[in-house]
Predict the 3D structure of the following.
Amino acid sequence: MYSIGTRETVAAFDVDAQKCFTPLCPDELPVPEGHLIADELNRQAELAAVRVGSKDAHPATAVWVATEESPQLTPIEGYKNVDLRWNLHAVPGTTGFELVDGLPDVTEYDYFVWKGVETNIHPYGACFHDLEEKMSTGVIEFLKSRGITTVLVGGLALDFCVKTTALQLRRAGFVVYINRAACRGLGESTVVSALEELKSAGAIMIDSVTELSVDDVAADTVAN
């Protein structure tokens, strides 16, 4: 059991929990069981004072869209903020752009990030708009302004956007928990590699929120 401190210092981060990353959109980037994480994301949010989220929001004319000649995961050169080709996904106005069923409307989050809106930029992490991590999305600054020290992370996919977001949060000084029940990964080998990288960076792995406890006793004592 991990004690994560008082609720006022905890945030829950729903990273790219969109239908394009689920079997509901098989022509995009379907992650096995990706549509089943909403309940656990909601449970981890109950332990937090702040809930933030992110979405991919990609144009249909993006330079990184895979083709028959250049299929998915083919390296792409000539763009400093694009590294690989991907199937077209998360286009605003499509089903794939939507959050998975069971999650709040985006307006109910305390802070929300839309990323990848430019045709020649394809970030993975939700904390920076660019791969070089020079242009902040503002979420780190928002969390620090609210006194957050611990972030519970879930979303899609564990081996790409969740991993990168968690690493960015660690570099920013937050205590980061990766909630495995609130994540799903795209590939077995890349999930294993991602977990090793996250552990090396100091992120804490949990199987579900049942391993966490919130200690509000200190806050009550101060109030009295």
